[in-house]
Design brief:
By secondary structure, the protein is of the alpha/beta class. Helix content is 35%, strand content 15%. The protein has a four-stranded parallel beta sheet.
């Protein structure tokens, strides 16, 4: 099974949704994790509600630091994906790779749904739009990896 880490600054919305969706869509082939450079401390409730509305369960969701994935006991990674422009511009820790295989690094830019101002319906719509974009990107990634 391959491993993938989704990185964002706060690890509360985009990376949490990407982790949960990849674990659902890539089950048996991929194991996903997420982390942030400056984690907020908890997942955004609208991210969890968006996942739930699609029947996707986030397994023990928590906002965590990317430092957890840089230690000797961290999972060996195959792919690291930044999902926000801020995290893409930061200097990441050195993550453990599989012996003889460098980590593939990707950047998929998604707008921050947590930054949307407006009423509840507008905020929910922003999370839904970003989730749909994440799902499309992951589906295309999984299809390309299966070829």
């Amino acid at each position: 099974m391959k491993t993938i880490l989704f990185l964002c600054t706060g690890n509360s919305a985009r990376s949490i949704m990407a982790e949960a969706y990849m674990n659902a869509a890539g089950a048996g082939r991929w194991r996903a994790f997420s982390a942030g450079s400056h984690p907020t401390g908890r997942p955004n409730p609208l991210a969890l509600a968006t996942l739930a509305s699609h029947g996707i369960e986030a397994r023990a969701p928590r906002s965590k630091s990317w430092d957890e994935f840089a230690g000797a006991d961290a999972p060996q990674l195959d792919v690291v994906v930044t999902v926000c422009d801020n995290a893409a511009g930061e200097i990441c820790p050195v993550f453990p790779a599989r012996p003889g295989r460098p980590i593939r690094k990707l950047h998929w830019s998604f707008p921050d749904p947590a930054a949307v101002r407006g009423d509840d319906a507008e905020k929910r719509a922003a999370f839904e739009d970003v989730f749909q974009s994440i799902r499309s990107r992951i589906d295309a990634f999984l299809e390309s990896e299966a070829a």
